[in-house]
Amino acid sequence: EQTGKSGYDHYMLKEIHEQPLSLRQCLSGRIDELDGRITVEELDDLSDHETVQFVACGTSYHAALYGAQLLRAAGVAANAYYAHEYATSPAPVSTADLVVGVTQSGETADTLSALREASRRGAETLALTNVVGSTAAREADHVLYIRAGPEIGVAATKTFSSQLIGVNLLTSHLTDRGVKRRRDFVDDLRGIANDVQAVLDESEAAAVVEEFVDSDAFFFLGRGLDYPVALEGALKFKEITYEHAEGFAAGELKHGPLALVTANTPIFAVITGEGEAARKTIGNVKEVEARDAPVVVVTDGVAEAGRYADHVLEIPTTDERLAPLLANVQLQLVAYHMAAHLDREIDKPRNLAKSVTVE
Ligand code: G6P
After folding, report:
1. Are 35 and 173 in contact (CB under 8 A)?
2. Taking the model in full, what pTM does it have?
3. Residues 6 or more apart from 341 whose CB is under 8 A from it?
């Protein structure tokens, strides 16, 4: 078994370290060498769409939330739904709509049912999946493979990063048609694997988490594109450490979660880019510091958020659409190192399955 782990203690850590490779695979042949245009052959016959709905569960839902924001920013009406909630309360769809099932395995029963329901009501469907020939891939009208390679650890890591790239490719495909290369973005996309490698080489997550072993709970904050990362950071943390972790939209803090904040609840704040969102989240960091909570800021440094933190987990600067992916790698390491410290069964957390094939 140790051979399968290539010398790493766990599949999860191996898969975290495989991300530079899996991201290169995801992008391979999809950026034109000459003019830098993003071209996704599989999507050539995808129609134009006025609205996009994402359906997904678990980690894939967080990629869906991120994707919906990307599309909205590019002028497409997009929303993300938990697939199981979609089944109970489906959003109206017509033939003008695209429904995207984000599912690593392509076998999650809730996501498959939501896709089938959307298809029954006339929507065009797309599966964004890792597994070639999976049920989602076979049933959907279109499929975009994220090419992350097999993922053994129950906690999704490299597949999430590749899903984030996958929804970027989809967004470019739907909104950039006829547009020549968007130079800075494409350059940063090409550099993303190296940036992930830099995070892996230089992360101080292992040292930072040691300080917080005896905490009551762990909270993760983010706004805008950093919000799905906060949710994913908390999900990963609770899945493998069994400690209480919650992710919040930073702006929601004052509407309830602030009541939970004490000197014994470390806050991980994800703050990338320099816009209004970053400035506002820095305001939230000050609020939790006033309640004596220890603060770890995961940041590219652009908004100088590190000044307000007890610890900083740095990421390289890149396009603001890609920075959340790098921040998430830091949070994968935070979860992993805490779980390792607590001696948890990292690759097979109790009560969880890699793929849930019942509704
Ligand atoms: C299970 C796994 C999660 C995963 C979710 C959705 O609950 O434990 O890690 O995110 O299913 O899986 P999918 O294959 O649809 O992405």
Report:
1. no
2. 0.96
3. 209, 210, 213
